[in-house]
Design a protein that fits this description.
- This protein is mainly beta.
- Helices cover about 5% and strands about 40% of the residues.
- It contains 1 helix and 9 strands, in the order ββββαβββββ.
- The protein has a 6-stranded mixed β-sheet with strand order 4-6-5-2-3-7.
- A hairpin with a 2-residue loop joins strand 2 and strand 3.
- The model has no long low-confidence stretch (mean pLDDT about 90).
């Protein structure tokens, strides 16, 4: 069984000054007993999910206690990073536990990439219509 959700392309006011609308998904992230609502950029070209430093701190992560993560590329290539497991909620769907590359900077937004957001979902981008569609299959969700 699955549920489809449709979202508009929007500009994330915290990261883009160019006014270009992108597929930013409103999500809730949680870790331990902490929870935040944020926008995440859906990036099918990103290998991994990424969390900026302040997000990990707000969620109660302790940088020195997390395992170092090596081998990042792209905009995160020269940044120190750690592995951080977070629960993600999209809309009214059940939470999904996913690994994130928790980076040592705040210059990059939360990014949902191939591992492991796109392994749990079907995503269709309709740039001409300025919207995208997500379908999470309940039999593929591991909570």
């Amino acid at each position: 069984m699955s549920e489809k959700l449709v979202f508009p392309y929007i500009t994330n006011p915290h990261y883009e000054d160019d006014g270009i609308d992108r597929p930013h998904l409103p999500i809730t992230l949680s870790h331990s007993k902490n929870e935040i609502q944020t926008l995440a950029l859906l990036d099918s070209g990103a290998d991994v999910n990424v969390a900026p430093y302040h997000v990990g701190i707000e969620l109660g992560g302790i940088w020195e206690e997390e395992q170092e993560l090596l081998g990042l590329t792209g905009v995160t290539e020269n940044l120190e990073s750690r592995t951080l497991m977070l629960d993600i909620i999209v809309g009214t769907l059940p939470s999904i536990r996913m690994g994130f590359a928790w980076i040592s900077a705040d210059s990059v937004p939360v990014i949902l990439g191939q591992v492991s957001f796109f392994t749990h979902s079907k995503v269709c981008f309709y740039r001409a219509s300025r919207q995208f569609e997500i379908e999470l299959e309940s039999d593929r969700i591991h909570v």
